[in-house]
Design goal:
Layout lengths: L1 E6 L1 E2 L11 E2 L5 H16 L11 E8 L7 H14 L2 E11 L7 H4 L2 H6 L3 E7 L3 H6 L6 H13 L5 E7 L6 H14 L3 E6 L7 H7 L1 H4 L7 H17 L3 E4 L2 E3 L6 H7 L5 E3 L4 E4 L2 E5 L3 H6 L4 E5 L2 H12 L6 E2 H8 L3 H4 L1 H7 L4 E4 L2 E4 L7 H6 L4
Parallel strand pairs: 1-4, 1-11, 2-3, 4-5, 5-6, 6-7, 7-8
Antiparallel strand pairs: 8-10, 9-10, 12-13, 13-14, 15-17, 16-17
Helix pairs in contact: 1-2, 7-10
The structure holds iron/sulfur cluster.
Length: 380
């Protein structure tokens, strides 16, 4: 079984973020852990556990800033999960952590989190440039992030992923290259690099749209953003990382098994306020309101995923993987002749953008900046 747990607490709200976030200063962590444990009991009561002979294969705790919860809180959540389904001995258990949460137990004693069962950490670094970090309203400095990663390494964490961002206001190709080289120097196992998106109704949208502020928040030109993406691939691949998804690279054998399940369009259980899950062909979203969640942890919305939508998701997620889609498996799952059904798309984008590797269909690296256009052709 694959499980995602959402922990919404953050020290402050970054200007570009449109996630559901609860500021730590308002408290409520103990009540939240209680509610998560109740949600586990309620959801597992309806699950046929014989479907999961391997137990829990991955648990990904995302946020928010999950490293703001104590190791004791996680010990309690893991114990509750274990009452229903044990963790596989090879389970991948990931914690998202922020170097800016300097007054947290994670900053003081990162080994405590390994002791309760986490074996992978994903650090929200974003950039090793202080000007860029300020533009993103992140709380940490580059030096704090480096110090935090060194502390993780010194306390036994040997599966560390960094989140990096390109397309940040004031970022240049040189500063991005410096962030990449710093990443390589740190000797981590995994990197996720995302292009900054200016989301609607965020302070960043106002700042970049506002003519007076735009001078202070100049976004890099589109061509530079594309060049940064390719430079990211070049620098990291030269350092031994392998791209296994559009935005994700890992040292061999260190790919995120949890995220690969998403791109395989596999089911996963989501727990927590505002968490998104996909379970028995139904997509669901936990309620985006802490008060309601605490009263009823199953509150939220759900939407059955009909066969056409499942097929589109299997193609869109599957083509994100460097390995691509195993077409015979897709054909047998959905009862279709892939080449016949998508003959027009294959003719239009074949060659430069779509590539056959035996029974797998892949998007080429050149196609990735155009992927929205190409993937849209597989819809409908
Ligand atoms: S730390 Fe992450 S989740 Fe929290 S506000 Fe910033 S971007 Fe959003």
């Amino acid at each position: 079984m694959y499980i995602y747990l959402h922990v919404p607490f953050c020290v402050s709200h970054c200007i570009y973020c449109d996630f559901y976030v609860v500021l730590e200063k308002y408290g409520g962590k103990a009540a939240y852990v209680d509610a998560v444990c109740r949600e586990i009991a309620l959801r597992f009561a309806d699950i046929d556990l014989t479907r999961f002979p391997q137990g829990i294969q991955t648990l990904y705790v995302g946020g928010g800033t999950p490293s703001l919860l104590s190791s004791g809180a996680y010990a309690r959540i893991f114990e509750t999960l274990n009452q229903y389904l044990p963790f596989s001995p090879t389970a991948e258990i990931t914690l998202e952590a922020n170097p800016g949460a300097t007054r947290s137990e994670m900053a003081d004693d990162p080994a405590a989190y390994r002791a309760v069962g986490f074996n992978r950490v994903s650090v929200g670094v974003q950039s090793f440039d202080d000007t860029e970090l300020k533009k993103l309203s992140r709380l940490h400095s580059a030096a704090e992030a480096i110090g935090f990663i060194h502390r993780l390494q010194a306390t036994g964490w040997d599966n560390i992923s960094l989140d990096l961002m390109y397309g940040i206001p004031c970022q240049t190709r040189d500063s991005w290259r410096a962030t990449l080289h710093q990443t390589v120097t740190l000797g981590v196992q995994h990197v996720s690099m995302y292009g900054l998106k200016v989301e609607e109704n965020t302070p960043l949208e106002t700042l970049t749209l506002n003519a007076a502020a735009r001078g202070a928040y100049p976004l890099p030109e589109e061509d530079d953003v594309v060049a940064m993406y390719h430079e990211g691939l070049d620098v990291l691949q030269q350092a031994g990382f392998v791209r296994y998804e559009f935005s994700n690279l890992a040292q061999p054998g260190r790919e995120s098994r949890h995220n690969l399940n998403y791109w395989d369009n596999g089911e996963y259980l989501a727990l927590g306020v505002a968490a998104h899950g996909y379970w028995q062909q139904v997509r669901y979203e936990g309620v985006r309101d802490m008060k309601t969640y605490l009263q009823n942890p199953l509150a939220g919305e759900q939407q059955p995923c009909p066969p056409q939508e499942r097929l589109e998701n299997a193609i869109i997620f599957g083509l994100r993987k460097a390995q691509g889609i195993h077409i015979p498996s897709l054909e047998s799952e959905f009862g279709l002749d892939f080449r016949q059904r998508y003959v027009a798309v294959l003719q239009r984008f074949g060659g430069d953008y779509l590539h056959w590797a035996g029974e797998y269909l892949q998007l080429t690296e050149a196609a990735i900046p155009l992927s929205n256009t190409i993937l849209a052709e597989f819809m409908g």
